[in-house]
Structures are given as structure tokens and as C-alpha cells.
Design brief:
mainly alpha, single chain, elongated
């Protein structure tokens, strides 16, 4: 459950405030967060890539958790 909350929070942060580097700060990557903040998510490209990566990770976790035993 904690892993799911971490991924969900990261995904929401990435989509809503990713261009400000909020997802990188949340992950503990301060230097990359500052770089992303200064470049406004590397002009939108880095922002989209990170948001998609967070979303895919959340989807993979959900698929693994919902596998029949």
C-alpha cells in the first residue's frame, strides 16, 4: 500500500507540478529538481517524459498487485 501511495503521489505531482521539478524533489533528487525548475521542465519535453514514466510505473504496480493467485 505504501508503494502505491508513493507512486500515486509522484504521478500526481509529475502531471500537475512536474514542470517545476516537484516530482524530482519528491523523489529526493534535489539537483535534478533545481535543474528542471530552472529550465521549466526542459521546455516541456523532460516534463512529459517524467510524467509518462511515473504513470507507467503506477500502471505496472497496479497490474502486478491485481494478478490472480
Amino acid at each position: 500500500m505504501n508503494q502505491w501511495r508513493y507512486l500515486l503521489t509522484g504521478t500526481i505531482l509529475s502531471w500537475c507540478l512536474g514542470y517545476l521539478g516537484a516530482d524530482r524533489f519528491y523523489r529526493g533528487q534535489i539537483a535534478l529538481g533545481v535543474l528542471k525548475l530552472i529550465t521549466m521542465g526542459a521546455f516541456g519535453i523532460w516534463y512529459l517524459v517524467d510524467a509518462i514514466i511515473w504513470t507507467v510505473q503506477l500502471g505496472k504496480y497496479n497490474m502486478e498487485e491485481n494478478q490472480p493467485a
